[in-house]
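User: I'm curious whether this sequence folds into something compact or stays loose and floppy. Could you predict its structure so I can see for myself?
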Amino acid sequence: MLKLEATIEVAEQSKVLNFETTEPVITIGRESKNDFQLPLTTVSRQHCRISFSEDQYFVEDLGSSHGTQLNGQKLNPGEKKLLRSGDSLSITKAKIKIEIVKQQLERAPGDSTQMLARNAVENILRGLDGGTEQEDVPYLRIMTGPDEGRTFKLRGPVAECVLGRSRESDLVVNDGNASRRHGLIKKDYSGVIYQCLGAKNLSMLNGKEVPRNSVKRLRDRDEIAIGSVKIVFIDPDAELLKSLSGIPGFEEPEPEAEPVPPDPAPEEEGSQPDGEAQAAEGGEQAPDESVAGPPPDENSQAEAAPDTQQEQAAQEGGEQAAAAEGGEQAAAPDEAAADKTANGEGEVAKPAEEVPATQGRFGPEMIFVVIAGVVFLLGVVVLILLL
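Assistant: Here's the prediction. I'll summarize afterward.
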């Protein structure tokens, strides 16, 4: 039996409409010919439809102007969704509460707990043993596409169902985006899981992508989407277990936590830092160390700055100072290279080219200075002897 309780709020006033039926198909809309009429101008003539199939109720939007929402989520026109007791339908300003009353839930006053527990245990055991065609066992149902309504029941304590485009699949998915073997449903004593079989196009579970070769546990009303085809997992015992959630041993399991993404891997030695990577993206090229040799150390950098000042002093002080500073500059790179080779830093530097005897410290200018000094000293000695 299906019970509907609609609360309509218009101009800060509420009106409650009740409806009960055992019919397999119920239409809801503005016109009086509907099974459940909602007298609102914003409601379409035939707004949505509730149907009963495989001992389950399903709701479907009939292409209404303002749409239908199930528990706050808008339904796609022509797409069926599974209903459970306690669900809420929103049709513009009307809020409809769903209550599904099944025969196995009816009990006499005073023995509600015993009756519910017995029915739940009997149904679960029948599902584990396989049962018959009429018994309640978990199953899969195609909700959209040309094969809408096709089912596959997971019988026995252990069962499998292959989903895919291949005709050899247990449940064929008629969609071009489906692989020949797209997914696998497994049932055992621990529950039911869904595994993506490394398909080219990822499948979706309740609107979230399922990574390739990953495993996800299925619960009642979970929806698998492969391309445009949607498949819902239905567990008939879910309502009984939900009714017994307050009894020890029948607690509803907590949802599994989302996996925590792994920490980013540390940078490997020799990897390019962020600053250098940005410089490379901007078009700047890093110097080639294999050609230019190792980068200068602090000593060479400290000597590089005075070089410019010495050159200026050489220009102002004359050729002699310039010659002397030129000799120091020639020796500085050799000393810096020798220090880096001794410390084991960088690559082995190539030997410096030999400086001819007529250059550097003993160039023509230095020879002239030495001769002038000798002549001056000889002159001083002669003067001393004469005196």
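Summary: Residues 380 and 386 are 10 Å apart (CA to CA). The longest helix spans residues 319-343.
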